[in-house]
Structures are given as C-alpha cells and as structure tokens.
Amino acid sequence: MSLLPCSSITPTLSQPIQTRATTNPKPYTVLKFMFPSRKGNLQEAFRSFTALFSDTRNLHLLDSDDVFAPLLELCAISKAASRGRQIHAHMIKHNVVSSSVFLSTKLVFMYGKCGSISDAEKVFEEMFERNVFTWNSMIGAYASNEEPLRALELYRRMRVFGVPFDSCTLTCVLKACGAVEDIRCGSEIHGLAFKCGYDSSVFVSNSLVAMYAKCNDIDRARKIFEGMNERSDVVSWNSVISAFAINGPSIEALRLFREMRNIGVLPSTYTYVAALQACKDSSFRELGMEIHASILKSNQLNDVYVHNALISMYVRIGKMRKAAVIFYKLHKKDDVTWNSLLTGFIQHGLFFEALQFFYKMQEAGLKPDQVSLISIIAASGRLGYLLNGKEIHAYTIKIGLDSNSQVGNTIIDMYAKCCCMTYAGRAFAKITCKDFISWTTIIAGYARNDCYIEALELSRQVLINGMELDANMIGSILLACSGLKCFLKVKEIHGFSIRHGRSDLVLQNSIVDAYGECGNINYAARIFESIEWKDVVSWTSMISSYVHNGLAIEALEVFYTMIDKGIEPDSITLLSLLSSTSSLSTMRKGKEIHGYIVRKGLIFDDSLSNALMDMYARCGNLEEAYKIFTGTRSKSLLLWTTMINAYGLHGHGKEAIELFYKMEEQRVSPDHITFLALLYACSHSGLTHDGKRFIQIMKSKYQLEPWPEHYVCLVDLLGRANHLEDAYHFVKSMRIAPTAEIWCALLGACRVHSNKELGEIAAQKLLDLNLDNAGNYVLVSNVFAARGKWDDVEDVRLRMKGSGLKKNPGCSWIEVGNQVHTFLARDKSHPESSKIYQKLGQIIEKLKREGGYVANTKFVFHNVAEEEKVQMLYGHSERLAITYGLLATADGTTIRISKNLRVCGDCHNFCKLVSKFFGRKLVMRDANRFHHFDGGVCSCGDFW
C-alpha cells in the first residue's frame, strides 16, 4: 500500500477540523433529555424517549444531539441493531441526519458495533461532510467485523482525500494489518506513527504489539513493549501477554504475567484469560493451578469469560474433573461455557459422557449451536451410536445446518464410523459448498467400509474437478485399490504420487501396506527399503505385509531388526506380531512378546488382551489364554467371543456353552460372531442338540438373522454326528441358496462316514458352483478317489489346473529352541533328514510290535500300488515333525506341532500310539482344531 508523506496530512491551524461546534450550531435549548447513563437500561431509555416524543410541543425545545447521541451509544454497547434502526428512522423523520456530521458519525459507529456493515456503509456514503471521527468509525467497523481488507482500502481512500488522521485511525488500521498478517503494511504504519509522534500513545503502542504478534514477529512485539515509557497500563500488559500466549513461547507469557503482578499492576479479566490461554498442555499444570489460585483471590471470579478460560485450561491440561467442578459451580453459563466442557469430553475420549452432557444441555433449555452439534455428532460416531447420530442429523436438517460444510463433513465421518455409507453418501450430496475435506472424508469412508468402487469413482471426480490430491486422499485411494487386490491400480497410484511429488513418509507407508495387501511382497519390501527415515509405522507396515502373506518367520525377523535399530514397537506392531506367532503356533516367541508388553508397561486394552488370548489359544495353551481372560476386569464382547472360540478350538464345547451363559448373566449381548464361535464349539464337540437350540435362540431371543456361515456350522454339526440325511434335508430346505462352504461341509462329512451316494450329490453340487478354492477341488477329488473313479479324479484335477489353482502341499512345523522347523510331505531338505527318517523307522517298528499299528491306506487318494500308499503315509509331514520333536527335545517335554491341512485318520492313530508308547504329550493344531494326545487318547474323542 502506498502511503502519503506525513507532512502532507498533518493537521495545521490553517486547516479547520470539522467538529460538532463548527458544523451544526444549535440554538439555545430550553428542555434537556434526561438520559439514564451509558450503563443504563435500554428499555428504560426507550420509555423515556417515547414519552418525550409523544408531546409534539417538546420537539422544538429539544437538542437533537443530546437526545439521539446517548441512545445510539447505548444501542452500540448493547448491540441492539433493531433499536438503532428505530432511532435512525426518528432522526430521518425529524431531518437531523443530513444536518449533523456528529449524529451521522454516531450512526456509523452504532451500526459498526452492531455488525450491520451494509447500514454503516450506506450512512457513510450518503454523508456530504465527514470528519476524522467519521472515517475512524467506518474503518473501525470494517476492522471489527472481519473485513480487514476493506478497512485498509478505506484508509487508503482517506489518505488520498487528504483527511487528517489521529492515533485512533492508526489503531484501527494496525488491527486490520494484524488480521490479514500484512507485516509490510503494518511496518509502514509503524513508521508513520513514529514520524508523526503517535508512537508514544499507549493505544498505538498496544496496537503495534498486537499487530506484530499476529504477524508472528514476537521479537518486535517484545521490543515495542519494552520500549514503552509507561508500563502501568494493564492494556499494554494484556497485549504483550496475549501475543506470547497465542504465538508463543507460552512460558514467556506466564513470565510476563508474573512480572506484571510483581510491579503492582492489577490483572484484568483479559489478563487472566490470556494467561490461562498460555497453559497449553499438561506440562503447564502447576502454573495453571497457580493462576486459578490468583483468580480466587481477585474479584474476577464471577466473570463468565474467566470461568470459560479456566474450564478450557483444565481441559487442555487433562484435568476434566476440575473443569467439571468449575462448570457445575457456575450460576451464569453461556454457550461457550457448555461447549468448552463438551469439546473437552470429546478430546479426552469420554464420548459417552459427552453424549450425556449434551442431553443435559437440552434439559437446561439451550439450543445446540454449530460447535455443540459438531462435537456430539463426532461423539456418536466414535461410540458407533447410529441411532443417536441419525437423531442429531435430523435436527441439523430441521434447522438447515446439514448443508454447512463443517457440520456435513462431521456427519459423513459419523456415518462412516457407524458403517452406514448409504446415509454418508446422502449427507455428502446435501453439502452446498463441498470443500476438500468433504471429498477426503467421503472417499476415506467408502474405502474403510469396503465400498472400493465408490471410493475410486469419487476420486476420479476429484481429478475431473481440478482438485489436487493430497497424501491423505491418495492413502484412501490406495486402501480401495488394495481392497480390490488390484496390483496394477496400486502401481498406477504409486507412479502418480511420484510424478506429483507426493512422497511423504505417511504415503510411503501406505504404499508398503497396499503392495502387501495385493500379495506383491517383493514390491512392498523394495519400497520399505527405500524409505530413508523409517518410523514405527513403516516397520509395522512391513511386518503386517509379511503376516498377511503367510510369511510369519520373515515378519519376526523384521521385528528383531526393528528392535536392533532402537525403534520402540507400538500396540499395532505387537498385534501384528502376535498374529504371526499365532499362525506359526510358536508359543516361545509369543511369550517373549507378552513379556515385552509387561516390561514396557503397555496398557492391556481390548485389542491387545484379545490378541494375547488368541495367541495362547492357537499355540495350544488354553490355560494361559483363560488367565488373561479372567485377569481382565472390564470384559468386552470381543473378549468373551474370543474365549468361547478358544474353547471350541480345543474341543471344549460344554465349557464354551457355560461361558456363554456367564456372558449373558453379565448383560453382554452376543452378536453374529459370538454365535458363530458357539456353533463352531458345538460342532467340534458333537453337541448336536445344543447347536440346533442356539440357532433358535439367535433368531428368537436376539433377533439375529443367521449368516451363511452359521448354516455351514449347523450342516457340519449334523454331518459330524452322522445325521447326514438331516443335514441334506436342512440344506435343501434353506431359504437362501446353499453356498460352496455348505456343500463342502456336507461333502466332508459324507467322506468321513463313507456315505458315497450322498457324497457324490454334494460333490456335483460343489463342482456346479465354479469353485475358486483349491481345497474344495481336492475334497471332491478325494471323494471320487475313495470310490475308485480315477477318470473323474483326473477330470477334477484338470478343471482345477485350468482354473489356475494349485493344491497346497501338506506342511507341518515345530518350534524347537528359538527356531521354527518346517516339513513338507516326504521332505528330505532338513539338515538332520537322515537321522529323522532313521528315527521314524524305529518308531513305526515299535508301534507295529507293541501297539499293533497297521497303516490304513484308505486315506491315500492316489492311483498307486498298495506298498507305495503305505510309504506315502509314512512320509506325511506331521510324522516328520513329531519325529524331530522326539529327537530334539528332552524326555517328558510336550511336543507341539502345527499342520496346514486336516490331519488324516491314519496319522491321528499314529499320534495316539506315539503318546502312549513314548510317554509324550502331543499337541497338534490342524486346519480345523486342536488335538491333545495323551496316553493313547485324543481330546477330540476321534470326532474331528
């Protein structure tokens, strides 16, 4: 902005300044209007005013300035624009506006204070004469009503017209400069103030301090304050304390507050508010409480602004109980008071308390404003309270706030967190002016709720609309691509991010995740290695990628490298690691991770406790899983369900049912997953009657419609109990079309119980569904092989090969020492292979001699000679793992192995005999369940 030289506008004696005396001389008046005072009651003043004007004889005796000016001032103080317009109408009626610069200026001032900028402009532009006070009033109106650019433009006009300015002008202009953070313009005004001698004015100095502070030039703000001759004015201290409180360093604001008190300057309301604002987090806890004590000693305790600042301070330092105590002691509360505590509950994760507090607001007769609505919508989303969210959404529609971008964005996020994307999409459509956050929120919501196509479609619209994608949005798009397992699309987005320079750490971590989800572990590893400064999320992403792709050993190796690099894992890392140890059944490593969690003092939240329980259960240690369960005070549905599932996994169906009843006694309502775990437990324990009953309880008592997975469990339950006709009848009578899993369950039962006719029906139904699972093809092939239909076996295998599917080879593993040893069927790759096969031969001879063991070749589904079938059985992977366990572990040690496929009947018999004649407990986890072999007996009761 170009500024005219100071000399061109400095007022001189030859330049008369328009004042009330020179512009509007008044005749001698007889009657004076008795105005209550500046602090008087507006209603009272209007009654006096109405009474005065009701007698027309009084009109010619009144001094219009004395009547209208104080009324306009009182309207300005009360921000009563409607009353001000009534006075303005009277002034026009009596023709005193055009004849009085003084009253016109008062009108401009009043409208500006009331926020009626258009009315102030109209009065200003219609004035034939204006003095410096008029210009100041209009500039001040712009500056005070968030129109700083227009304030600066009007100031430029004032200078061009050569109107003299004063310290008040500079104060208003400096406020505008601070609002737009125009330090260049502010510095010019500073220079002008210095040249014209206004820098010695306390008001100008205070405005300079505030302007530099808002322009983030704290050093210059401090210098101006320290250069002030007189520092006994509390406003000066308020300016500099507020500057440091807002723009930092906060500790300096508090040091100045203490210095001010030491030299005897009494703090005002604004001082306390600024000092409390400086207490930004928990590190300021003691100082904040010290300021609170100072307020208690002063007479500022009853000020609502101070109370609001106190509540906000206690919220920031994490003392929600203190904030609540102050709130409930307050007699006078405004919207800010309620919203401060409400947002505090949200910030500290007290979402349920926030919801209760919101209803108290309504009971108190407060209408929720935009701030409180945004807070409570966010709380509903975090709690997953869809009905509450819908109720508040309906209220926003009623008051017309649903089209507001901030409210609309929060509504979208709430519906996304409640997994209700249909309503989220409608809320998005209702937003009038969608900002970038609107698009980011809806795309993220679709991506996280498995609506991948919708997320990608909206991302295309973003590009069509010319908006630039940021790292967050690209991350959501990558999530959608990885959800679709679309490797080429991930590569495309990866290339896009490189071309557009979007390669920050967060995005690189997302790319590692996306490649891992798409099964391309090599690309994920390459991106991971290329990250120069890896954070805990980078390492966790790589660990998760390995776990997701079944590479649990590699995941553990990355973890140990991470520890060597000095990176502390977080709870997400540990969850991924526990998942990897669960898949490997490596209890030693699982215990190591458990110990690490305890040593580091990490909080056992639901997710971590659940992962530990699941790990111990899948590693065969049901007792340790139950210890964690009983040691958790507040048990969520997730923990109850995991423990029920653990019992089912180990064949303890009755214990699972008992636990379910205990859960009901604790008033925890089961969901679909709970019933799935319960039916699974019944299925693996032969509890046919209980399984049927729980399906009915699920539908009648809890109004939960069974999923196809529940029907699979029921068919499996009936089939295992050899109720094959009942199972087949149930499948045919189902209201939904039977899935491949349902026919597979029936077919598996037919194979176990040698029901060849029903087995062939199920096999054909399975083939008609165009299978995409190699295991189902193998099951069908085995059924045909059992009947000697080798041509049909070959056809099935050709179909499987044509579909690009491969049979998973039988694989077993055992943890010995600190290493996992893996064996395939007839594997000879192990370093001690010769010793293993020699020992296996000795074991088989002993079992034949002492236990009467004879290989049952009906479990070999290959068209080969009988002797070769026997040798194939001897080479099954679990036998090699057990043999190595006998070689490598001390006598009496429990041998724990895992197998990726269902154990065959002959190997099951082999395990029972080993446990009896070698005096070892064997714990085997196969693809279906756990088997605990001890003394020649299996925990499954030969029912698996």
From TrEMBL:
PPR repeat residue intervals: 131-165, 233-267, 334-368, 435-469, 535-569, 636-670
Domain (DYW) ranges: 852-944
PROSITE patterns: PPR
GO biological process entries: RNA modification
Record's subcellular location: Plastid, Chloroplast
Gene3D superfamilies in the cross-refs: Tetratricopeptide repeat domain (1.25.40.10)
Gene Ontology cellular component annotations, sorted alphabetically: chloroplast
GO MF entry, a single one: zinc ion binding
Chief place of localization: plastid
Keywords of the record: Chloroplast, Plastid, Repeat, Transit peptide
InterPro entries, sorted: DYW_dom, E2_motif, E_motif, PPR_At4g14850-like_plant, PPR_rpt, TPR-like_helical_dom_sf
Family named by the database record: Belongs to the PPR family. PCMP-E subfamily.
Protein name: DYW domain-containing protein
Organism of derivation: Erythroxylum novogranatense
Species classification: Eukaryota, Viridiplantae, Streptophyta, Embryophyta, Tracheophyta
